[in-house]
């Protein structure tokens, strides 16, 4: 590694990849990621701001040329390269992209790009390319360094295309571009739909709709490939595939993609954290409306205040994890520190969210808001913080790469399944800590006009609405303490709140809670006994009720019903026998007259 510092600006549309790359690079000595952006406009704006501070604050731009498939995004990326070279002619650009098409790489080189590495390149090779480019050279991995080599690849591509009839060349190239653009758009949409299908707490109707959309996208992808790829091209690809499978695999042919498919990625704990937190940041852009039937303290806040609070908690949690790494705590110490970590997270969030020196005038008193809200930490700790489940497992996963044990299943650290489970635990942690931040506010300053104007939802701003909201929360705590929590303990499960596209939803996961069950007493213990009695007696009781019901129906229909029927028929026959003689008597009288 050279002693010359590398000061980078990362431009990539994928926030997860962007964050992971940043974490990986910052672990290397003498590399500083000055800023990360997702759009060309943001890149130009950040460079302009940094240039005013220090023209040498950034000495390399690493960018993804669009999304790798969309022609429009590729054109915008090339335009960004031209603008960068116009405004900052001495600023080198390294293309780090999924793009492999020679003609696009040639356009990028002509636009001023100094180097290229395909995504999947090892960090060691990427750093070597960065050093070469910053030193004034060029680095084109696989396609190598000169215009001649890239032009040679273009010539080879044209030579392959020349096998087609001359009249079909323009249409073939246009069809190829349509295919790339269409497949790229379908794949991006398909990924988004698939990700939504894996979100917990999704209603059944939404799952059905998303599953239908996924089937439609897969069908569209197949149809697009059939229409825009000629039979000769399909046959050529099949032959290439057969030939490649018959070859002896070498070390150079084992791509990173194959390795990632056969085993979980070997990420550092910080990279695991970066990926997880980046995904959580993306989900915080969803609606934060509470779609459950459980009242939450943060429901009284406006949506932007909810989002601001959850962002702050995530930021404070990241700082805490870094401090724990610096302190070099062991996994055995983590269990004892869990309560302290959560309490410190709650206190630091209140301090920053409401302002350390913020004051409020109540009558003749001038009080400090933060000091008032931090007066009774024991209540919040007992009612909310200590009841947040699986916090120790989440910290062990993020700090020591310990496999997650969730739903009676072990998920290897770094796997996509472990990431999904960790997301659920993290989202629940954020929401519950946010509830803990709002709880003392509702107890002490619920009906203060300044607080209502700055934080509350407009629908919950009147005194009556606030008191009704507080009563709902009070009943929730009573129900949880005496009934719900005992029921969940008996059923060996936890109820968690998650961030879903439609809002804050809830889900439940299995967890062994035998120790908690043995410690129950009072009303919660009675609740579990009632549940156990109900489970034991319910089948027999149902059988007994079914038997009694059948007997009751038999008595009503066969005995009482038939008896009533016979009595009714006798009455009708009696009425008929009385009426008939009267008619005969009238007839005889008429004859005598």
TrEMBL record:
Residues 7-134 form the Response regulatory domain. GO terms for biological process: phosphorelay signal transduction system. It comes from the Bacteria. Gene3D superfamilies: 3.40.50.2300. SMART domains: REC. Pfam families: DUF3685 (PF12452), Response_reg (PF00072). The chain crosses the membrane at residues 544-564. The keyword Transmembrane helix applies. Keywords: Membrane, Transmembrane, Transmembrane helix. This is DUF3685 domain-containing protein.
């Amino acid at each position: 590694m050279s002693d010359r510092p590398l000061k980078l600006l990362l431009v990539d549309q994928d926030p997860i990849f962007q964050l992971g790359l940043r974490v990986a690079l910052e672990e290397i000595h003498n590399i500083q990621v000055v800023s990360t952006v997702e759009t060309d406009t943001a890149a130009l704006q950040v460079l302009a701001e940094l240039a005013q501070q220090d023209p040498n604050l950034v000495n390399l731009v690493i960018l993804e040329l669009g999304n790798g498939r969309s022609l429009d995004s590729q054109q915008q990326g090339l335009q960004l390269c031209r603008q960068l070279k116009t405004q900052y002619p001495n600023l080198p650009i390294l293309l780090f992209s999924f793009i492999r098409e020679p003609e696009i790489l040639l356009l990028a080189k002509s636009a001023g790009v100094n180097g290229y590495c395909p995504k999947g390149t090892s960090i060691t090779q990427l750093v070597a390319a960065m050093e070469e480019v910053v030193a004034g050279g060029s680095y084109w991995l696989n396609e190598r360094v000169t215009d001649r080599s890239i032009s040679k690849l273009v010539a080879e591509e044209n030579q392959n295309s020349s096998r087609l009839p001359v009249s079909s060349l323009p249409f073939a190239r246009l069809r190829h571009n349509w295919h790339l653009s269409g497949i790229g758009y379908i794949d991006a949409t398909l990924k988004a739909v698939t990700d939504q299908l894996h979100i917990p707490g999704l209603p059944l109707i939404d799952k059905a709709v998303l599953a239908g959309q996924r089937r439609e996208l897969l069908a569209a992808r197949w149809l697009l490939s059939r229409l825009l790829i000629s039979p000769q091209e399909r046959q050529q690809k099949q032959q290439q595939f057969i030939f490649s499978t018959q070859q002896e695999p070498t070390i150079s042919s084992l791509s990173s993609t194959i390795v990632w498919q056969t085993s979980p990625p070997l990420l550092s704990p910080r990279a695991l954290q970066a990926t997880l937190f980046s995904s959580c940041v993306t989900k915080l852009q969803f609606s934060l409306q509470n779609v459950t039937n459980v009242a939450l303290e943060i429901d009284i806040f406006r949506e932007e205040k909810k989002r601001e609070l959850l962002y702050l908690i995530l930021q404070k949690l990241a700082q805490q994890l870094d401090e724990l790494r610096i302190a070099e705590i062991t996994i055995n110490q983590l269990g004892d520190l869990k309560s302290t970590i959560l309490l410190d997270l709650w206190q630091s969030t209140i301090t920053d969210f409401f302002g350390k020196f913020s004051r409020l005038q109540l009558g003749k008193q001038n009080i400090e808001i933060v000091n008032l809200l931090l007066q009774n930490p024991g209540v919040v700790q007992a009612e909310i913080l200590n009841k947040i489940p699986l916090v120790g497992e989440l910290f062990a996963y993020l700090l020591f790469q310990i496999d997650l044990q969730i739903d009676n299943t072990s998920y290897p650290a770094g796997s996509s399944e472990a990431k999904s489970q960790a997301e659920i635990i993290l989202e629940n942690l954020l929401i519950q800590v946010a509830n803990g931040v709002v709880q003392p506010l509702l107890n002490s300053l619920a009906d203060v006009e300044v607080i209502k104007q700055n934080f509350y939802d407009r629908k919950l701003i009147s005194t009556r609405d606030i008191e009704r909201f507080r009563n709902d929360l009070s009943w929730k705590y009573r129900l949880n303490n005496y009934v719900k929590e005992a029921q969940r303990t008996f059923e060996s499960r936890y109820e968690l709140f998650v961030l879903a596209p439609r809002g804050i939803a809830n889900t439940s996961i299995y967890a062994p809670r035998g120790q908690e069950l043995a410690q129950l007493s009072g009303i919660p213990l009675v609740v579990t006994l009632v549940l156990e009695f109900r489970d034991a007696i319910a089948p027999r009781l149902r059988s007994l009720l079914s038997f009694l019901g059948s007997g009751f129906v038999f008595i009503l229909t066969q005995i009482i019903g038939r008896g009533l029927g016979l009595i009714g028929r006798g009455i009708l026959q009696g009425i008929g026998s009385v009426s008939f003689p009267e008619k005969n008597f009238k007839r005889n009288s008429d004859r005598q007259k």
